[in-house]
Fold this sequence. Notes:
Radius of gyration: 15 Å
Distance between the termini: 28 Å
Oligomer: single chain
Helix content: 55-70%
Number of domains: 1
Mean pLDDT: 86
Number of strands: 0
Shape: globular
Number of helices: 5
Amino acid sequence: MNRALKIMGFGGLQTGQGFRGLASTITNEQIGFRSEVIKRQLAHRDRNKIRRAYDHAQHMTERHDLMQWWSDYLDEQLGEAPK
């Protein structure tokens, strides 16, 4: 990802981790999305080793809703109406 960003002229301006941080910040500010769902979508590892050992939930329905919201949000940033 970082190599692609550099090729596109964004070297030193944006990183893959920077995109994850941006997505995390924006989605965590929205009402209705649980942090567990956001963390799972961003592939963040749970810091609690007990929960990490026992909780293998994928939260697919909520992640689908989150990604639909994210898609609509990005469309709005481009000035396009959500579908």
